[in-house]
Structures are given as structure tokens and as C-alpha cells.
Amino acid sequence: MKLTSVRAALAGAALIACGLLAAPTAASAAPPAVPPGVDQRAVPAAERAAAAGYWTAERMRAATPADILLAGKSASTPAADVAAGAPVTYGKPAPAPDLTPMAASEAPVPNIGKVFFTLNGRNYVCSGNSVSSANGSVVATAAHCVHGGKGKYATNWTFVPAYENGAAPYGQWVATKLAAPQQWTKRGDITYDTAFATVGTLAGKTLQATVGGTAISFNQARGLSYEAFGYPAAAPFDGQTLKSCAGTATADPYGQTQSQGIPCDMTGGSSGGPWFLGNGSQNSVNSFGYNNIPNVMFGPYYGSVAQSTYAAAAAS
């Protein structure tokens, strides 16, 4: 995933897309009240109806990896609130799979899937994951997979869990609400490249009741070990099957974001795919990389801003 840094000091380092677990202080806690600073859009019924029939197998295959939407984005606001708050986990953690090498092929996972949307008249693709929530209907992804950053929200936003080679074994789940940090929607700040979508029901059942939902953690220690999943679509991948990477997180070497990087060679299309801690709870997403630091994927720190954004999507 590639984008050009606006900082002169990083003129040669364009962004590309592409331990010990801190014990949570509250497991299965109720999300806090939604504070100011979270941007939300309720999707009108007519738009949801149009999206329900929009994503044919042909359109899904032809969608463009959304990493190009990162062009011109950089960190532009103070990071003091990124890590504020006590460690917390929503949902019941479960053991994660064993760590795997870079870009290992995976069988479809029911709760992990592809995200499709339209922005400025063009169809895009990302990745996402169903996470535990009070409403049973929340998908975690990257902010650039729901909003243009200093632009507008996506339309036709749809989650296809366990996608593989055009198949949608659990159906297509259309967004009813999209939520992203105002740091992203107002300023395109890549430190806050995290978002959540609330989706409707299918056949009277919620997403979580259909495919499950992983626990999700915020305000954890840095430098932990992760396993990341996604559907890389840019060469040498084709976006048709699930891939995974794993490794220990390190800080952004340029210090321009609060994001962390792990060894990973996934490409565009994997944006928004989940990062899991050793206990199986999600704690970040695939966001970006640097073209002069090959095979490292960076993901946003899940601090208080990400927690508030999740709370907005998880509200009934």
C-alpha cells in the first residue's frame, strides 16, 4: 500500500499498505459512553437497499485495493490521547492460532472477511473482522476503508465474511452505521487509521450470531506479538484467499506516527485486516508501510480514541 509522506524529512520514505500480554483490567466490560471526537454516519435505508444488491462476484473481483486512498496522509495531531485509558477487553478472549511465517495461506475464517465499498465513484476492497459487541453487529477495519480522510464517507459498504474466490458463504452484510475518529475524518491523520462499521441483520440473525465475534482489546502494552490476517490483492497476491503474517511489534522508526510494525509482506487489499494478540483478542488492523522498509506492516495503536470509536459502533 503506497502513499507519499508530506514531511520533508521523509521525502524518500513513502508509506505503503499494505510478548507478554498486558492483562486486561476488565474482561467482557460494557463499552463507555461515546465521548466527543468520534465521527459517525447513519446509512439511510434506501442506500442500504441499493448496497444489498450491488456487489456481484464480478464487481468484487474488480474492486481496487484501497491503499491508494492513503495518498497524502500523515500524522498531524498530538498523540497524547492515543494511549490514554486503562487496559480493557470486550468479549471473551480465546487462544489464537500458532504464529505463522509471512504471507502464509489460510483456510477461510468465518469472522474474517473482505470489505467492499464505493468512494468518489470508484469501487474499493479492504479486509475486516467481526468483533464482540453488545449489538452483535460490529466489523473492525481501517479508517481509510470507510472514509476518505478529509473527504466523505463510503457508500455501498459491505462485509463478506469468509470470502474465498468470489464465494460469500455467510452472505453479504451491509453497513447501517460507520464510525471513525475525527482525527481521521477531519485531518486524515494516519495515526488514527481505525474504524468500525455496524451492520444489519440477515435472515433475522446478527453477524456475531452467524459467524462469531472475537474479543477486542484497548490500551494494551506496546511491543507485543501479533498474528495479522488479510486479503492482499496487489501483486504478487490476487486477493482471492486469506493470508496471515506474524511477529513482534516495534515502533514507527521515523516517529511520525504512534503505529507499530510487524514483519509482514501483505500488500494492498489487506488494509483493515485484524491483528490478534496471543489470547485471540483483536488489538489493531493492517494500515500502512514504508517503501524503504520492506516487508513490515504498520497498524494503529488501539488507545482511547479507538476505544471510543468502537463504543460508537457497538451502541444499540
CATH C-level label: Mainly Beta
In round numbers, the mean pLDDT is: 86
Q: Structural class, from secondary structure content?
A: mainly beta
> How are strands sequenced across the largest beta sheet?
6-7-8-11-10-9
- Taken in chain order, the helices and strands follow as EEHHEEEEEEEEHEHEEEEEEEEEH
Give the total of domains: 1
Looking at the overall shape, the CATH architecture is Beta Barrel
Number of strands: 20
What is the share of helical residues?
10-25%
Low-confidence stretches: 1-29
Treating each run of at least 4 consecutive H or I residues as one helix, how many helices? 5
Gross morphology: globular
Q: What name goes with the CATH superfamily?
A: Trypsin-like serine proteases
- Largest sheet report: 6 strands, antiparallel, barrel
Strand content: 25-35%
**C-alpha Rg, in Å?**
17 Å
Distance between the termini: 34 Å
CATH topology: Thrombin, subunit H
Structural notes for this entry:
With 316 residues, the protein is mainly beta. The chain is 11% helix and 29% strand. It has a single domain, classed as Trypsin-like serine proteases (Thrombin, subunit H, Beta Barrel), CATH 2.40.10. The chain has 5 helices and 20 strands.
Outline of this structure?
This protein is mostly beta strands and 316 residues long.
